Automatic annotation (TrEMBL):
The keyword Kinase applies. Residues 17-99 form the Phosphagen kinase N-terminal domain. One of its GO terms (cellular component) is extracellular space. It comes from Ostreibacterium oceani. This is Arginine kinase. SUPFAM superfamilies: Glutamine synthetase/guanido kinase (SSF55931), Guanido kinase N-terminal domain (SSF48034).
Length: 369
């Protein structure tokens, strides 16, 4: 998932002044992405002939940026090894987005103690503004290429392993797995409209190979109470999601912990000692945690730049209600989520959300007086 990076440092590159003008990379001269900022001539020459264990190259990793100059990041990892092989490009991108690379990063989803529970309190009046709360974490299986390089038989094997693991979930989380291929159009539309199911990827994901062999071996596990779900073979192998109406973020997190504790006993996830969880998009490494609320902001939603500036101050990202790159014009409901995922614990990621949302609620109240 490519996400906007505010106040990005500008690094002088030499793409336009080199023989890269004779390659597809010339498109990057028109881009303001992090890849365009950090892919100097020297870095390109050092990496252009490198090949990862899954057979991917630098060209494939940045193809989405070549096709889409308006990319914010511009890089999709095709396997876990990409983070080492293309480190001369990826490390500065990761530092620019996340702030730093820690000496050690845990991707563990940790139990919630009483101290954190009491700290996770939304501002008074939040119940009238927060429509729903969601926490998800991204994961990929260690023994397979990531989605952009996944062959059909391997995508089927990934799905099979995940479905077997889902069968071991505790009774409170039991539900049904459905493949997208087996759904009729009405069922798909209903699940998408309810914000349960993912759609075929946009142009950014398509250029990264993440729509290949669509919709085969992709699906959704939905718990009976519809408060827990798992996306299989979307941008990453798994998106483990806990969600519910209202603003009880502690309950949402505890449900995620329950599910993750079970799934990690049966699945081997791709991780790195310094980078933590490894994902297709470098924005999702570290904890892989994205905590979010859909919140009604009648005043601030009409002042987009003001809302984004306040969100940036608290390390939050603003999206439309329908997700990334969605048109939210005229809609008072926006999606707010934590932006930082590396160098923090899972609990700290959620604390970012709570602190930022509280500041935004206070400003919304002030504007409504």
């Amino acid at each position: 998932m490519q996400t906007p990076f505010p106040q990005r440092p500008v690094v002088q590159t030499d793409l336009a002044q080199t023989d890269l003008a004779n390659t597809p990379l010339s498109a990057l001269a028109r881009s303001q992405s992090l890849v365009a900022n950090y892919l100097t001539h020297a870095v390109y020459l050092a990496l252009k002939d490198k090949v990862t264990p899954s057979g991917s190259t630098l060209q494939q990793a940045i193809q989405s940026n070549v096709d889409n100059p308006d990319s914010a990041i511009g890089f999709y990892a095709m396997d876990a090894a990409s983070y080492q092989i293309f480190a001369p490009l990826l490390n500065p991108i990761i530092k620019a987005y996340h702030g730093n690379i820690p000496d050690r990063q845990s991707g563990l989803i940790m139990p919630l103690d009483d101290a954190k529970k009491s700290a996770w309190r939304f501002e008074a009046g939040a119940e009238s503004l927060i429509v729903s709360t969601r926490i998800r974490t991204a994961r990929n299986l260690a023994d397979f290429a990531f989605g952009g390089m996944l062959m059909p038989k391997d995508r089927q094997a990934v799905q099979s392993q995940i479905v077997d693991a889902l069968a071991t979930l505790p009774a409170a989380l039991q539900g049904q797995y459905e493949t997208i291929q087996a759904m009729d159009e009405q069922r798909q539309s209903a699940l998408i409209a309810s914000h349960y199911l993912f759609k075929q990827g946009d142009r950014f994901l398509a250029s990264a190979g993440l729509n290949n062999d669509w919709p085969n071996n992709r699906g959704i596990f939905l718990a009976a109470d519809k408060r827990f779900l798992v996306w299989v073979n979307e941008e990453d192998h798994l998106r483990i999601i806990s969600m519910q109406k209202g603003h009880d973020i502690s309950s949402v997190y505890e449900r995620l912990v329950m599910a993750f504790d079970c799934l990690q006993q049966h699945l081997n996830f791709a991780e790195d000692p310094r980078l933590g969880v490894l994902a297709s998009c470098p924005t999702n490494i570290g904890t892989g945690i994205r905590a979010s609320v859909h919140i009604r902001l009648p005043h601030l939603a009409q002042q987009g730049e003001r809302l984004k500036a306040l969100a940036n101050r608290y390390h939050l990202q603003v999206r439309g209600q329908a997700g990334e790159h969605s048109d939210n014009a005229g809609n008072p409901i926006v999606d707010l989520s934590n932006r930082r995922r590396l160098g923090l614990s899972a609990l700290d990621c959620i604390n970012d959300l709570v602190l930022g949302v509280n500041a935004i609620i206070r400003e919304e109240k002030r504007l409504s007086r």
